[in-house]
Specification:
The chain contains 11 helices and 18 strands. It is α/β, with parallel strands linked by helices. It has a 16-stranded mixed sheet that branches. The chain has a two-stranded antiparallel sheet with strand order 12-13. Strand 16, helix 8 and strand 17 form a beta-alpha-beta unit. It is globular. The N terminus is likely disordered.
């Protein structure tokens, strides 16, 4: 296992340790690995090796990974489809980051990224002293007398209570200096994970928000007592359960922020495998996955490289691997390999492509996206995003059924996974698109493994090539993907929207 010493100068991320989860690490049985999976995994390992440094958007590691992918696509016989005859479509970015922050409450100091994080903005004050006002769920009717204060809200995601944007809007309207949302441990399907890797906001050039002195913080519930100077376990438990909460004032917060800005570009990698049927030349199928990862971040168990093997290097590798197998023989429809940058920062690569397509959008028939895939337990159930919205859902169901895989719609819509990955910009543009998640039966061992990975692997350095895999599950999905691409790219009928789809954009 990799362990990387960190200097104080390394992106100011320090060497903080993760507050360990009390549950032991759960991993799937490795099992045997077949020849096809070995070849695929070899490229996945290259893309997520330490020398790629986590492939952060705009980083040297991302550039190296992009060049490697372009080289492999060229060997597979694809043609470059980026800008100016190249493989790359460069996106200009502006970034604002919080390089360091301090927060002292009534009970002591909180540690930046371990105990709290902050939304970056160029207008953050270098120092701020503000009275603390605890206001429960921060409904507007409890926000009297908070002018100039730091308002603490329980960050619930329960229906019927204010969401994050509603809380912030109400606190701003009430004249507060800032809001501190307690990361809700009651949201167990995707629980809070500490530390945060870093505090950065990345936007297209010219789209950073105007300077704003309002402070927006996320708090580790386990350290709330340091801010309030009192025992807080009962408060956190009540909030996690969605029960009524008190309102009170409690001392003063002292805050400090060091912000930095940066400007850079980062590339999508785009290549074209021509179709074999001229009559279908205007019906390209886009195979997408995101090349970027988190890069360097706050240390977890002494490790600072967030390799992103399953998120999403392995599935960039799978697209490249499939097209290498098709070298010299295409599908009837053209196939576009689109490996996106900036997904982790806001789906920037796929959104940019939709806004600045290197092929007219009317010549794109569908998008098959690979993300959110975790082959760490048997593939018996598969969640399919936009399952009933387009004929791609039917295609996926037929292929899955042939492999004895049960498909389902998203059982956890409150996580909003549908809109958190790169098929969403295609759906929003009116192009049929689909994405997949390994599912499970409630209460099963598979669910236990899945939940544990989200606590200990998701957006963590531990998502690396050393993690245990269920190789049969990985192979099962890969074969599903190969068959789905072949079906969609070769069948007579073009992918289409279903009548009554709520996702299909309304015509102007």
């Amino acid at each position: 296992m990799k362990k990387h010493p960190v200097s104080n100068s390394m992106l100011n991320i320090g060497i903080g340790l993760l507050i360990a989860c009390s549950m032991p690490l759960i991993a799937a049985d490795e099992g045997p690995i077949d020849a096809d999976s070995k070849t695929w995994w070899s490229l996945a390992s290259e893309l997520s090796a330490d020398n790629m440094e986590g492939r952060d958007t705009g980083s040297p590691g991302h550039e190296r990974a992009a060049r490697l992918v372009a080289e492999r696509l060229a060997v597979a016989g694809l043609s470059p489809m980026g800008e100016n005859g190249s493989w790359f479509q460069r996106i200009p970015f502006d970034e604002v980051s919080v390089a360091d922050a301090t927060l002292r409450g009534k009970g002591g100091d909180l540690v930046f990224l371990d105990d709290f994080t902050v939304v970056p903005n160029t207008g953050l004050p270098s120092t701020l002293t503000a009275p603390i006002a605890y206001r429960g769920y921060c409904e507007p009717d409890v926000l009297d007398n908070v002018t100039g204060k730091l308002v603490i809200c329980h960050g619930t995601r329960r229906s019927g209570l204010p969401g994050r944007s509603e809380r912030e809007a109400a606190v701003r309207e009430a004249g507060a200096a800032g809001v501190a949302n307690i990361a809700d441990p009651g949201f167990t399907i995707e629980p809070p994970r500490w530390p945060y890797a870093y505090a950065r906001s990345v936007k297209r050039q010219g789209e950073l928000p105007e300077p704003d002195p309002f402070v927006a913080i996320t708090l580790n519930a386990e350290k709330l007592h340091l801010l309030l100077g009192r025992e807080t376990r009962d408060l956190v438990a009540l909030g996690a359960a969605g029960k009524p909460l008190p309102v009170f004032d409690s001392g003063t917060a002292e805050l400090g922020f060091v912000t930095r800005t940066a400007r850079y570009t980062s590339p999508n990698v785009i290549g074209l495998l021509p179709g074999t049927n001229p009559a279908l030349a205007d019906q390209a199928i886009v195979l997408g996955a995101h090349l970027d990862g988190y890069g360097f971040g706050r240390a977890v168990d002494g490790d600072v490289i967030y390799n992103g093997t399953l998120d999403d290097a392995a599935y960039v590798a799978l697209i490249v691997h499939l097209l290498q197998q098709r070298a010299g023989r295409g599908y009837e429809r053209p196939v576009i390999a689109a490996l996106w940058t900036g997904e982790e920062k806001g789906l920037h690569g796929s959104r940019w492509f939709i806004d600045h397509p290197t092929i007219p959008l009317e010549k794109i028939a569908a998008n098959i996206n690979l993300d959110q895939l975790r082959p760490i337990f048997p593939l018996e159930v598969m969640t399919v995003h936009a399952l009933t919205d387009t004929t791609l859902g039917t295609d996926a169901t037929i292929i899955a059924k042939s492999q004895n895989i049960r498909v389902q719609e998203d059982p956890e819509p409150e996580r909003n996974l549908l809109r958190r990955t790169d098929h969403w910009p295609f759906l929003s543009a009116g192009i049929p698109a689909i994405n997949f998640v390994f599912g499970f039966e409630p209460g099963s061992r598979s669910e236990e493994i899945y939940r544990q990975w989200y606590r200990t692997g998701y957006h963590r350095p531990q998502d690396d090539i050393a993690q245990l895999m269920d190789w049969q599950a990985a192979a099962d999905f890969n074969q599903f993907f190969y068959a789905l691409v072949a079906r969609v790219a070769n069948q007579e009928d073009v992918p289409a929207w279903r009548e009554g789809s709520k996702l299909r954009p309304k015509l102007e």
